[in-house]
Design goal:
The protein is an alpha+beta fold and 436 residues long. The protein contains 13 helices and 7 strands. Helix 3 packs antiparallel against helix 4, helix 4 runs antiparallel to helix 5 and helix 5 packs antiparallel against helix 6.
Length: 436
């Protein structure tokens, strides 16, 4: 009991609802880059922004004791504004833009024109920026521009210095010697950064290759299993049908249950087969598709199923120009899966309303229901494969956990998006946006 009680206390302390600030920080700090190499650059930028924030905060507090001047306020305003802008671009998944904004940070050196080249801060920042450019910039052109800016600024700071606190015979008292030494040191930094980036890229490629091999094996298994299991299922279905013709009335209900289970299993296998084919980057066959006609057809197909549950299924188009260029067969399957999902999780006498409208260069389709809704903690995962949420409810409805995943995959292949909004006990709204 003691261990259980302690574990409960720890769980409460770690609960995001009890510590919303920590949860917010974790959400803001979570990697948002789409691939490992971009995620590596993003983490580097985050660490740099954290170091810069702490460093300048310490200096600001030290100067605050001595008394701030107006130029100081402007300088720190620029610094913290730039840090905030970089963090905002990272949060918006604009890693490349955040990296370029970091390059502009080198211009902060020029804001203090009295700094001499022998200043430790100038030297440290110059070397740091050299490392920064190579670590976070992705395109070789950006790296070259960043390095030229850095070298140019440091050369300007060095050559414009008129007085040196060093003895005249000191090697570093001469600007040319200082520049030669610093550029040599920066060359070493570039070599180190290049090695780190190359090692990280090799690690990412190895990890991606291993992951791709696992995915290929699983995809091949699903493909083979889907094909191989369809034959015995067909035999079971035939045997069940023949048995229902000859069995007594009280046995036919059990056979009907068996037939329903076979039907659900067959649908799951077909969905697995479809998903494996979509994973192989299918060749889309573009054609002109009238979304109004497509949705009218789907509503007619699903109307008997809705009437069986006494549901009210409606469709409304707010625009006459709903023509899009897409693979009609796949888009029909995607929208069909979303409608089928709404019918499954809407109770009897419920409402499913479908709309279609043109917004600029996109066609927006919404499927709204007043069904059971989706809990907030499960909403981010509904497009994951085989995610089924409430197991009991999904077993009752026959949801196989692949319908929405297939829909999202198809829409992604067409360059569109699908979003879900839901509230428990109120209903759900799925919004599909497709380029025209």
């Amino acid at each position: 009991m003691g261990h259980s009680s302690e574990g409960n206390h720890l769980a409460v302390l770690a609960s995001p609802s009890r510590l919303p600030l920590i949860q917010l920080v974790r959400e803001l700090a979570a990697p948002r880059a789409p691939n490992p190499d971009a995620a590596f650059r993003e983490r580097t930028i985050r660490i740099l922004m954290l170091v810069a924030f702490v460093y300048f905060t310490i200096i600001a507090l030290a100067e605050l004791i001595q008394g701030f001047r107006l130029p100081d306020l402007i300088w720190y305003g620029v610094i913290y504004g730039l840090i905030g802008l970089v963090c905002a671009t990272l949060y918006a998944k604009r890693t490349a833009l955040a990296a370029r904004l970091c390059v502009l940070s080198v211009l902060l050196i020029v804001l203090d024109p009295t700094a001499a080249y022998w200043s430790p801060g100038t030297v440290v920042f110059s070397l740091l920026f050299t490392l920064l450019f190579y670590m976070i910039l992705d395109h070789p052109r950006d790296v070259t521009i960043g390095l030229l800016i850095n070298f140019g600024v440091f050369a300007f700071v060095t050559l414009q210095s008129n007085e040196s606190p060093l003895p005249a015979d000191d090697y570093f008292a001469q600007p040319a010697s200082a520049l030669l030494t610093m550029f040599g040191a920066q060359g070493i930094i570039i070599g180190i950064a290049h090695y780190i980036r190359r090692d990280q890229q090799q690690r990412n490629q190895t990890a991606l290759l291993a992951e791709q091999q696992q995915v290929d094996v699983l995809r091949q298994f699903l493909y083979n299993a889907s094909h191989d299991l369809r034959t015995p299922l067909a035999k079971i279905r035939l045997a069940s049908y023949l048995a229902q013709q000859s069995q007594a009335e009280d046995q036919r209900a059990h056979l009907a249950t068996l037939d329903g289970a076979v039907d659900r299993l067959e649908k799951m296998l077909l969905a697995m087969l479809d998903m494996s084919m979509l994973d192989c980057d299918p060749q889309l066959v573009p054609e002109d598709v009238d979304v109004r006609v497509l949705l009218d057809t789907l509503v007619s197909v699903y109307q008997p199923k809705a009437q069986h549950k006494h549901q009210h299924l409606t469709f409304q188009a707010s625009s006459s120009d709903l023509l899009i260029r897409c693979d009609g067969r796949y888009i029909k399957r995607a929208i069909s899966n979303v409608i089928d999902n709404a019918l499954l999780f809407t109770p009897e006498h419920g409402m499913i309303h479908i709309t279609a409208a043109r917004k600029g260069q996109h066609i927006v389709i919404t499927v709204q229901d007043n069904g059971v809704g989706i809990p907030p903690d499960k909403l981010p995962y509904i497009f994951d494969r085989f995610y089924r949420g409430d197991e009991a409810r999904n077993s009752a409805t026959g949801n196989n956990g692949l319908g929405l995943a297939i829909a999202k995959k198809i829409i992604d292949l067409h360059g569109g998006t699908i979003l879900a909004e839901s509230a428990v006990g109120v209903g759900s709204t799925f919004t599909i946006t497709l380029p025209s």
